[in-house]
Amino acid sequence: MKGSIMEKYVHNALQFVFPKNCFEELIINFNIFHPTCPKMVLSRVLGLGITAGSILLFVPQIIKIFNAKSAKGISLISQLLALVAAAGTASYSFNKGFVFSQWGDSFFVAVQLMIIVMQILYYSDASAYAFAFFAFCWAFVFAVIGNYVPSDFLTLIQALGIPITVASKSIQAWQNYREQSTGQLSLVSASMQLAGTIARVFTSVQDTGDNLLIASFAIAAVLNAVLFVQFFLYWNEAKRKKMR
């Protein structure tokens, strides 16, 4: 009995990673020049890798804020906008029935951004709002799962995700420029974000062909690159401030 259950899980996993007849083409026939299978399998593997990596994406950021007992240098508006964009992508993709590896990272990112927003509120004068915000977020999750949110509204959120992403990243980049510092932002999280959004452009093209998702991730990749570069632009400035 246990053997048959295990075989079923293995079979389903192989079917997911090697869709259609790709297992036969790539593994059995070793036809690595098949016109579609290599790209499809690479997209699935990348999607799983990004989803797995996203579970820890903002953990360094969360730990850094917790240890400092401060969210100085992190824009609340920027994080809220990023949360709306991530939650919008996850909700839209769930509603469309896309494979979990295509949107699982957006869900995990949204959960972690929710925690960061709660930290910003908790370590500020608005600590009373932190847990109310938590309740609101999970109410929205259950509303999406229960199909209480209209599909047109989720499509609208996804469409607005592009200007929201631009606004979110631009606000944080401007704050970094104004202060000549990246504050409590985590370089590890920023690096993982950049790599993840670049890979997501490829997986979105392969797995969904959805222009809204492709455009969202492409723009996010460019803006994440700007934030990543700022760490090195203001690295020496941060050292000088510590020495004063």
Automatic annotation (TrEMBL):
Gene3D superfamilies annotated for this entry? Answer: 1.20.1280.290
Give the location in the cell: Membrane
Q: Listed GO cellular component terms?
A: membrane
Q: Which InterPro entries match?
A: MannP-dilichol_defect-1 (IPR016817), PQ-loop_rpt (IPR006603)
Q: How does this protein sit in the membrane?
A: Multi-pass membrane protein
Q: Does this UniProt record's set of keywords contain Secreted?
A: no
- Keywords, in A-Z order: Membrane, Repeat, Transmembrane, Transmembrane helix, Transport
The transmembrane segments are: 41-62, 74-94, 106-123, 130-149, 212-235
Keyword Membrane belongs to the record: yes
Q: What family does this chain come from, according to its entry?
A: Belongs to the MPDU1 (TC 2.A.43.3) family.
Q: What is this protein called?
A: Mannose-P-dolichol utilization defect 1 protein homolog
What species does this protein belong to?
Ancylostoma ceylanicum
Output the lineage of the source organism: Eukaryota, Metazoa, Ecdysozoa, Nematoda, Chromadorea
